[in-house]
Amino acid sequence: MNNALLNNIARFVLLLAAQVIIFNNFNLFGFLNPYPYLLFIILYPVNGNKSGLLLASFFLGLTVDLFCNSGGVHAAACVVLAYNRPFLFKFAFGLSYEYQTVKLNDSLTPERLTFMVFAVFIHHIVLFILELFNIFLIWEMIYRSFLSAIFTIIFCVIIIYLIKPNRK
Description:
This protein is an all-alpha fold. Helices cover 70% and strands 0% of the residues. It has seven helices and no strands. Helix 1 (3-21) packs parallel to helix 3 (50-68).
């Protein structure tokens, strides 16, 4: 086993455990929950196995669904995010992605923050569309998606800075 695979397995287990033990117990205003387990999909290596990412994303979401009793919405949202990840890279990084020079493990830059913001918003929109699943609740879906995404982004940035401090 190489070092990257061990890092991904450790990241998977730690983020999943943190989500299940700590962040699932957050319930601000009755609906505002952070989902920092998305950092596994966001920080997955750019040149990593795409099929492995889709499969790991499915199992990550499925495990969160089992603990949240949410019926598969997290699994679906994670797979949609993992599938759209290359398109988000092209959008956020442009030519840097084309030449495979993107590294997400470094400090947070505007491109990385753009990628993370769009990734979290895509996940949350899919999650809340599937959770509410009613056209008459569209404004509630937008409201929940936006506020939960902001809350998740704040937690993700804090976790990134705690784990990967700036090295200058």
